[in-house]
Design goal:
single chain, 287 residues, Helicase, Ruva Protein, domain 3, 2 domains, two-stranded antiparallel sheet, 12 helices
Length: 287
């Protein structure tokens, strides 16, 4: 990676648009984030929320090509006016963008990999992550995603079974990716300063760890089960089983799981077996 010069970030305007949860990285931290990303001149980056383009400029200096998605029309226009080479600005809400279609339109710009980066606004960080995960599950366009989150969200993504933070975010992210915390950032790393700490997390995508026949149902099962994470498993799944006229004990027997365990202790493979057991018992009941 060629060395990057610290980006010259314009002053933050007096009226930051709070509805967009805008917090802009200080130059020193931009350098650290780019060092963690390790961009290459043969890579295409989809950047979510470029803001003033500090990270965008640093990636351009490394020779990368960027498609930057910015919801703030004024910021998008200002970034477009800078005429940075190899940068395409898309003025849109990332949650409404068809990332698979956008990726296909720009695929020729990447000779080695397509990657996702972003200093995500806290108010859309989880929806934006799941939007990226869904795109990856359906179209497999990305090599990885390096994203900024509130520290508590990052904790939930890297959490392991048996820990307090373990739940649906960890399960769904780790199903498709190896998840690593790269950096922790204090409030002073941003302008204006947020009230919370932040963290940069990398999701290195790979084939699913376990086969999932019905992804939507699998997600439904884990979200329902983790609503009762501290209950015994037999009690945690009882409402979901009753809705389907199934016996919780029979579902657990089919899955080969001990009903005295708690949902927060289940590994990915065990959660997959649980979802599959619901489907199998329901099919047997119909027959």
């Amino acid at each position: 990676m060629r060395p990057t010069r610290p980006p010259q970030i314009p002053k933050v305007p007096r009226r930051v648009r709070r509805r967009f949860a805008q917090h802009f990285l200080e130059p020193a931290w931009v350098t650290k984030v780019v060092a963690a990303i390790r961009p290459s001149s043969t890579e295409l980056f989809f950047e979510i929320g470029p803001g003033y383009g500090a990270l965008t400029e640093a990636l351009v200096s490394a020779g990368a090509t960027i498609v930057a998605i910015e919801i703030d029309r004024d910021l998008a226009a200002a970034l477009r006016a800078r005429l940075l080479p190899r940068v395409t600005i898309v003025t849109a809400d990332v949650l409404e963008v068809d990332l698979a279609e956008l990726t296909a339109a720009h695929r020729l710009a990447a000779t080695t990999a397509i990657r996702v980066v972003g200093n995500l606004p806290y108010n859309i960080s989880s929806p934006a992550l799941f939007h990226v995960l869904q795109t990856q599950r359906l179209a497999h366009p990305f090599a990885d995603a390096t994203l900024m989150f509130q520290r508590e969200v990052a904790d939930r993504l890297v959490a392991q079974p048996g820990t307090q933070a373990y739940g649906p975010p960890a399960v769904l992210a780790q199903l498709q990716a190896d998840v690593t915390r790269l950096l922790s950032l204090p409030p002073g790393a941003f302008r204006p300063r947020p009230k919370v700490r932040s963290a940069v997390v990398r999701l290195a995508f790979r084939p699913s760890r376990v086969p999932i026949a019905d992804q939507n149902f699998f997600e439904h099962v884990i979200r329902r089960v983790f609503q009762h994470r501290r209950k015994m498993l037999v009690n945690a799944i009882a409402p979901l089983a009753a809705e389907r006229a199934l016996a919780a004990g029979a579902v657990l027997a089919t899955a080969g799981l001990d009903g005295r365990r708690r949902p927060e202790t289940l590994q990915l493979t065990e959660l997959a077996r649980l979802a599959a057991a619901f489907t199998r018992r329901a099919a047997e009941r119909v027959l």
